[in-house]
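Need fresh eyes. Consider my entry:
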Amino acid sequence: MATFGTLSDRLTDTFRNLRKKGQLTPADVDGTVREIRRALLEADVALVVVKEFTAKVRERALGDEVNRALNPAQQVVQIVNEELIAILGGQQRRLQFAKTAPTVIMLAGLQGSGKTTFAGKLAKMLEKDGHTPLLVAADLQRPNAVSQLQVVAGQAGAAIYAPEPGNGVGDPVRVARDGVETARRQQHDVVIIDTAGRLGVDAEMMKQAADIRRGTNPDEVLFVIDAMSGQDAVNTAKAFQEGVDFTAVVLSKLDGDSRGGAALSVASVTGRPIIFASTGEGLDDLEAFHPDRMASRILDLGDILTLIEQAQGAFDEEEARKVAEKIATDSFTLEDFLQQMQQLKKMGSMKKMLGMLPGMGGMKEQLENFDEREIDRTEAIIRSMTPGERRSPKVLNGSRRLRIARGSGMTVTDVNQLVQRFDQAAKMMKTVARGGTPQIPGMGPMPGARPGASSKRGKQAKAKGGSRSGNPAKRAAESSGVVTKAPTGSGFGLGAGGAAKEPTEADLAEIQKLFGRG
């Protein structure tokens, strides 16, 4: 999430220095709070919010909850996390629907804040939840605003009411009011009214928005704010609150390369909750806003819950069960692998998903260098195979691989690497399915691996490094396990357990093998 990138880096560095200390002094706390204050101000968070936030963090960090903690540094991180959640709104707030349909949702905000695109995103999200939204084109001032909403509605597959051409022609209040009546007649259960914006706050804009609100009596007035607008966002939000009195906030362009101060300021300053966050240009790039999850992302603690929800929405449960059975029975094929990749693509950007994992803030360079098109290339290679080749990659000889490479526009090396990666992944999945711990290539045995799960190479290394004796016979005996250690506990050469163990016939045969006489 690029918006909070700089802030996240600064806070992570601050806490990394803090974790090196076993006990925190008041000077340590003051230094930490000072760094947090600088990080927030550099992120363009409103000064009043920064003062209130750092005062609460300092008060709690100097209190008994940190002094009594086994790990004071982790306790301070927890305090910062809780206070971040508080300024982001505390509890998640959902969209409020009317008891009697239709639910009227009015959008307000400056020109260029992303209202029209958000209207399409919201319509698509509501349709997935079983609603039948109607988009109303009440922005009749901005050039081609009506045409843009028609295009967005077509992409979202939503109905639209646009009786006026716009470009300065038509009465927006009448269009909004008639749109609500049309929705009632046509039995649409949600109405989304796209209103006009201006390049700046002015009296005419506020009067028009206020007139539309009085004429339609909306259940929700959503203020769409550009997350990249910085300190100006706070002043704009205050002006709209006084002029229109919105009920909730939508953050747009949260994926932009900015400092993100608006997101950390607007909820605290206005007292209105943030309920949606727009995280990309696609119509599917819209998330319900969770203050606790957003705070975790800022502190590089990850957002596993959102990742799980996206996976549940993209993956078919029945298909997942079938794939699990195939993995367990060693019948997972490249055809199944292709289907899994296609479902993975439905989840959206891989960079975004990887960024939700804890600790990924320290791997930003690797994430930036990640090529999203790699999945498309892999898909092209698999699609160039015949069904038989997908089901049994072992039949892929040199000529077949050359044909596949030419058909997919790739090289034979790319095909070889894909088959090799697939074999490794299939083995790892099979190990996990059987309750084992996989060994990731290049990383050595995984912690907690079961005894006896090491490779042949590990056993050979263990056998080679078993003894340092200069006597060949003794060294061979020690390597085979016949003599484990020198007898101790008696001056007559007898150990504490009595006489030394006599070698068995199997042991003698093993010794002969070591000497090459078997």
